[in-house]
Amino acid sequence: MKRGVTDRAMPSGQGRFPKRVEAMLDAADAACAAHGARLTPLRRQVLGLVLESDQPIGAYALLDRLKESRTGAAPPTVYRALEFLLERGFVHKVERLNAFIGCHSATAPHDHDDHDHAHTVQFLICGKCGRVQELEDESVRSALANAASRAGFAPGRMTVEVEGVCRDCG
Amino acid sequence: MKRGVTDRAMPSGQGRFPKRVEAMLDAADAACAAHGARLTPLRRQVLGLVLESDQPIGAYALLDRLKESRTGAAPPTVYRALEFLLERGFVHKVERLNAFIGCHSATAPHDHDDHDHAHTVQFLICGKCGRVQELEDESVRSALANAASRAGFAPGRMTVEVEGVCRDCG
DNA sequence: GTCAGTCTGTTACCTTATAACGCATGAAGC
DNA sequence: GCTTCATGCGTTATAAGGTAACAGACTGAC
Predict the structure, then answer these.
(1) Nearest CB partner across the interface for A159, out of B96, B143, B153
(2) Beta strands in chain B (DSSP E)
């Protein structure tokens, strides 16, 4: 109803994102196009908001920001966009924080395709400053895959999160 | 949610738990005593309920069962007990399911102390049958600890959860 | 243009978790 | 004995996270 034309206007809200974010968005856009997926304005905006906050951000915090430019935004608005972005590996969910964070490798300029690093990411969560660092360690992935196989288990998506103290806080 | 025939074994409400559970409760009790902690009747009951369900169980499902014998039970009742049990390593939280599961190694008869295996447990979650299997693989733990250290990170509690397909479902 | 599939708006609701306050119990000290 | 402090728990209220279901709008294929 009140949803006129605003979102076709295309700027993400009132303005655009910082350059570094726009670049990642463009990379994501390209990756989507290459797979026949659609990074719609809404999805692009949500991804932008996630990337803009380089730390994990909750769905409702995201929603609040979204509301600044989309008056009608509601929880499903955010969650549906997040669902898409998670499937595509553009964002990850940090389970311990119930929060979402952008995947830097999936939104890197030359990223490509399907060898699912998206499924094998590790997070280091600093208990002091709250910052989260993304890790992509192959030895962890393979150790885990082996252990799972040994248990007769065909591994799929892996959630690996380590709470501790980061270099700066240590 | 399946109403298994097997968990009808004992009314678990007011009375006691099955023998295997009582044995684990006694072990937990002993472990608490050895550390100056108190496994109060409430905590013991909550732990019993978690152990009785050998699969992950949500806090509110736990609450429902608790209410059968404690009319006044409310969310904090359960969450406070769980907090204690988590700290002591008697139960783990499966983050992806928002559910809790008993730690078999911490409640084993001859369990001892503090070398925190409690912090280094892995879960295999079957996407088909929903069953969860606990794993305690040292190579995973050390790979992860090494990767974290290399990133300048002092690792503490680790959450490792693998979604996939179990032997029976595969 | 019309049809099917996808995406989004909208309302309503459910589940999970915590804050805050106060009473009860029990050990520690005088 | 009585105070004091700490811990555990009851109780109320509310925050935070997440989904179901239906309707309208858009897009691409024919």
Answers:
(1) B96
(2) 91-94, 99-102, 122-126, 132-135, 154-165
Question: β-strand A154-165 against A122-126: which pairing, if any?
Answer: parallel
**Residue carrying structure tokens 């995201």:** A62
* Per-residue pLDDT tens digits for A121-130: 999 999 888 8
With an 8 Å Cβ cutoff, are B148 and A164 in contact? yes
Residue nearest to nucleotide D20 (CA to C1'): A76
* Whether B34 contacts chain A with CB within 8 A: no
Name the closest residue on chain A to residue B98, using Cα atoms.
Answer: A95
Instruction: Give pLDDT tens digits for B100-153.
Output: 999 987 777 765 555 445 568 999 999 888 899 999 999 999 999 999 999 999
The answer to whether strand D lies under 7 Å from the CB of residue B79 is: no
Q: Which CATH architecture has domain B8-111?
A: Orthogonal Bundle (1.10)
Find and give the residue nearest to D15, measured CA to C1'. A60
CATH of domain A1-113: 1.10.10.10
Contacts of residue B94, defined as CB under 8 A and 6 or more positions apart, other chains included, come to B56, B100, B101, B123, B125, B132, B161
Q: Would you list the DSSP string of A43-106? A: HHHHHHHHHHSSS-B-HHHHHHHHHTT-TT--HHHHHHHHHHHHHTTSEEEEGGGTEEEE-TTT
**CATH 3.30.1490.190 spans which residues of chain B?**
120-170
Domain topology for A120-170? Dna Ligase; domain 1 (3.30.1490)
- Residues 94-133, chain A: which have Cβ under 7 A from strand D? 98-99
Tell if the CB–CB gap between B137 and A152 is shorter than 8 Å: no
CA distance B77 to chain A (A): 22
Q: For B94, what's the count of Cα atoms within 13 Å in the CB-facing half-sphere?
A: 28
- Residue A155 DSSP one-character state: E
